[in-house]
Amino acid sequence: MYSRSSLESTLPVAPKYPPATSFEQPIVLPYPLRVGTLSVAELMANSAAWEIVVKYLPQLKLMVSSVMIKPHLGNMSVRGLMSFVSDPPPETLKSIDSELSQLPQPTPGVA
Amino acid sequence: MSGDEHRMDRRDLLRVTAGAATALLVSPLARLARASDEPRPPGQSQPFDLQWRFWRGELNGAQGAAFDDSGWRVIDLPHDFSIEDLPPSTAASPETVVGPFTRASLGAAATGFTVGGEGWYRKRFSLPVRAGSRVELLFDGVYMNADVWLNGQLLATHGYGYTPWAVDLTGHLAASGENVLALRVRNTGQNSRWYSGSGIYRHVWLKVWPERTRVARWGIGIVTRQADAARADIELNVRVEEAGSSETISYRVLDATGHVVAAAAGAVNALSQHAMTILSPRLWSPASPSLYTLITELKRGDRLLDRAENTFGIRVIDFSAETGMTLNGVPTKLRGGCIHHDNGILGAMALDVAEERKVRLIKARGFNAVRPSHNPFSPAFLSACDRLGLLVVAETFDAWREHKLPEDYAALFEGAWQSDLESMVLSARNHPCIVMWSIGNEIPGRNTALGVETQWRLANEVHRLDPTRPVTAAINDFVGHPVRATAASARAGSSDTPDSASAIFLDLVGYNYKLGDYETDHARNPQRMFFGTESFPKDMAAIWELTERSPWLLGDFVWTAMDYLGEAGIGGSALLPEKLNRSSAPRLGTWPWVNAYCGDIDLIGEQKAPSRARDVVWGLSPLEILVQRPVPAGKADVPTTWGWHDEHGSWTWPGAEGQPLTIRLYAAGDRVELRLNDRLIANPSITQMGRLLRIEFNAVYEPGRLEAVAFLENREIARRELVTVGAPAALRLAPESPHSDAGRGGLSFVRIEVVDAKGRWVPDINKPIQLSIDGPAELIALGSASPFATGSLQSASSRTWDGRALAALRSKGRPGVVVITAAGEGLAAGTAQLRLT
C-alpha cells in the first residue's frame, strides 16, 4: 500500500523558506529627493521640500491634517494621497520634482 | 486495512479509554449540552458550546463561583452580542436605534453603527478530577480582551479577538467535580475598522488527557515535500510534551474512504520527524479538493495517552518570478476576493454551516481564492475551504506598533504578536487551502527602521514556524526606499537583490490598489513576485487582461468578494449633479448606511452587478444585461471609489414609463444587438475593457421584453433576455437544502422572495414580512441585503429588500419536520418545510 523506496522521478518539489540568521538593518541605497521617492510624512519633515509641494498642491495642507489620514502618511505618496481628490497633472509633479532636485539630496545609509 | 477494521479500531479505543482515561460530563446540564455521552478518546475535542449563561453589560464580582446568574439568559455558542437588538432609544428621536444599530455607535461607519461593550459568560459543568490528568479548554476565537476564571480564580487572559487560545484547567478543577467557568469580554473603544462582532463568536472545546503526556497543541505539522499523480512524499513534524522513555507513537494516513494508505511508528521524542510515502495520491486543488486524515496515537504499552486526527491535503505550490504560481506543477492564477469574517445577518457567529455557505457562494462566482482580511478566520471556515477547494491567503494583523485607531491591535502588539502569530500558523498550517501567510495589511510605520525590523521579525518567525509557505503583506501606495539586506538577514537567495523597504523581507509582495504600477514595477524589479491583494471592482477587466498575459503576475483579490457589515457605504454609487463631472463619488459612510456594499455578492448571498460583469471577464458567462436604475433629470449616477453603477438585471421599472433608461451589456464577443419588444435599439456607446466589451444603450422604458444577442466573428455566442414581471402577489420560500442536521450545529438558510402571479421574482420590492416557525428549529436571523439599518436582524418581523430576504434557522437539537411560513400584507403567504435528521 505504501513504500519508502526512493523512486527516481521529477516530482514537483515543495519550496522551502528557511528563516534567516539574525536581523541587521538593510542598507539604504541612493535615491533622489522627488515626490515619488519619499512618503508624504518624509516630505512634511523636510520643510523646504514640503513648502515646494504645497505651493503646487495647496489642497494637501488640509488633507494631511485629517485624523483619518494621519496614521497613513508614512505609507502615502503625494500622487497616492492626491488621488483621493483627483489625480495630479503629470506636469505639476514634474515641476515639483524639478524644484526638489535643487535641494540637498538624501544621504543613503542604514534605514 | 479495510474501513471495517478502522471502525473496529475506534471501538477498541473507546473500550480502552472508558472509565479511566476519559472524563465524562455528567451533570444534567452537561447531558443536555452533549449530543452523546459516549467516552471520547484522550485528547479529542469535545464540544463545549451549549448551555452558557450570558449577561451584556459591566458587572462586579460575576467571576465568583457563588455569583447568582439565574437571571442571565441561557445561550448556546457561537454567540455574537453585537448583532443582538439594542434597547430602544430613550432619546427624543427614536430612529437613533434600529435593531442592533445606533447612530451613537462609537465605531460609527467603521463598525456599521454597531456597538461592542462588555459581556459576561458563565457555564457550570461537571468533571470528575482524575489524578495526573490534563484538562484544557480551547477557544477558537473570542472578541476580545477576554478574561477567564474557573471557580473564581483567574486563569487566563487573551487580547486578540481572532486567534485561537487555550486555558489549562489542570489543577484548578473543584474536588467535588462541580465547576463554574466565567468569562468576560471587553470590546471597548475604537478597536476595529470593520464589524468585529463581540463575545464567544466561535466554538469552544474541552480536551482531556489521562496523563500530562500528550502530543502538543497544534504539535503535528504535515508537509507535502514532493508529489505527482504517482507518488507523494509526506513529512511529519511532531512535538510531544512531557514524554518519558516508554511511550510509542504511531501514524496512519486514511484516504477519503477510510482506507489506510500509509503508516509509520516509532519511539517518542520531544521533537521528531517522520517520512511517509503515498502511492497514487489524489492531489488537492480547487478543482479536486481531495483530503486525507492522519491519525496519530501516543501510547504507553496498551494505554492510549493521546489520539489526534489531522486533515490534510497533498499538494505542492511553488512561486516563480518568471512563471507565477504553480499548483502541482500547473500554472494557476489567484482569482481572488477579499472578505471580512462576518456572516451578514448572522453577525460574526461562526456556525460551521454559515462558514461553509460563504465559501460555497464565493466559489460559485468563479473565485478560486480568498484573502480573509485582515485577521485569522475560524477553523470551520478554513476546513470548508479545504473541503470545497478555495485557496487562502491567511492574514494576521491590521496594525503593528502604530495605531490606525486608538484601541486597535497596536495596543496589544508588543506583548502578543509572537504568541498570536504562533497560534495562527501552528493551528492552521495543515490546511491545504492556505497558500501563503500575510503578516499585515497597510501597516502604518512599516517604512521606518523599526517597521522594517518588525517586518523581518514577523516574516522570520513565520518561516521558523512554517518554512513551507511564503510570507507576504499587503502594501498600499508608497513602498519605501530602495534597500539591500545583509547576508545574515536576507531571505534565502536574495541578499544581493535590492528591493524596497516595505518588501525587502517578503517572499511575495501584495499590492493594494496599485494596478498602474504593475508593469513598471515588474520592469524595475523583475525578481519581485507580486499580486494584487486589493483592487477596485471597476478595474476588473484591465486587471485580468494584464494578469492573463503576464506570467509573472500571480493574480488579484478584489475588495470585496462579498458584502460585509462595517466600512459602511464605501461601495455603491451616489446621485450627483450631472455637471459635477466626477470620476468617483465620495465615500458615503453616514447613517443609516451599515454595510460596505462593495461586494460581488450581497449580504444574503445574491449576485450583484459587478459579479455579472466578472462572470463575463472570467468566462462564466458570455453576455450579461444590466439596467441602470432611473436617474432623475440633471443627475448622474456616480460609483464610489469601491463602487459600481446602480444597475440591475431587471426590466421592471414601474413609474419609469416614457423615461430614458441606460442599458449596459457586458459581452465577451465583438458585437451585440439589443431589441426592446422586437425593435432594434441603435447607437450604442462601446467601451473595450481588455477582452470585455461594455456596450451602453439608451432606450425609453416601456414594459415588455428586452433581448440581447452577442456575436463573435458573426457567430451568435449568447442570447439573454429581461422581461417585465407583474405586480407582487405572493411570498415564495426556498430552503437552500431540504435537510439539515438535527443537532445544535444544524443550520438552515431559507430564501424568501416576492413573486408575481406567475411565480417570477419581483425585484425592487421592500415590504414588511412576518415569519412563523413550527417544529424543532429556532429563528436566529432574518434580514435582507439592504445596506441600511432597517431593523432587527433577529426578530420574526423584517422587510424584503430588492424583493428578497433570508432566514437562518438553527436546529433545537432533535429531529423532526420544521414548517416555515412567511406572510406579508397583500401577498399570499409562502411556506416551506425542512427535515432535520
Task: List descriptors.
heterodimer; A: 111 residues; mainly alpha; 5 helices; elongated; disordered N terminus; B: 837 residues; mainly beta; Jelly Rolls; Immunoglobulin-like; TIM Barrel; 5 domains; 8-stranded parallel barrel; 6-stranded antiparallel β-sheet; 9 helices; 54 strands; 13% helix; globular
Would you mind describing this structure in some detail?
- The complex is a heterodimer of chains A (111) and B (837).
- Chain A has a domain at 41-100.
- The N and C termini of chain A lie far apart (56 Å).
- Chain A is 33% helix and 2% strand.
- Chain A has helices at 40-45, 47-56, 59-63, 78-82, 90-100; one strand spanning 27-28.
- Chain A is mostly helical and 111 residues long.
- With 837 residues, chain B is mainly beta.
- Chain B folds into 5 domains: 3-87 and 95-209, Galactose-binding domain-like (Jelly Rolls), CATH 2.60.120; 214-312, Immunoglobulin-like; 317-559, Alpha-Beta Barrel (TIM Barrel), CATH 3.20.20.80; 580-649 and 653-723, Sandwich (Immunoglobulin-like); 730-836, Immunoglobulin-like.
- Helices cover 13% and strands 38% of the residues of chain B.
- Chain B has 9 helices and 54 strands.
- Chain B has an 8-stranded parallel beta barrel, surrounded by 4 helices.
- In chain B, helix 3 (352-364) packs across helix 4 and helix 5 (410-428) runs parallel beside helix 6.
- Chain B is globular, with a radius of gyration of 28 Å.
- The chains are: A mainly alpha (111), B mainly beta (837).
- At the A-B interface, strand 1 of A face strand 13, strand 14, strand 16, strand 17 and strand 22 of B.
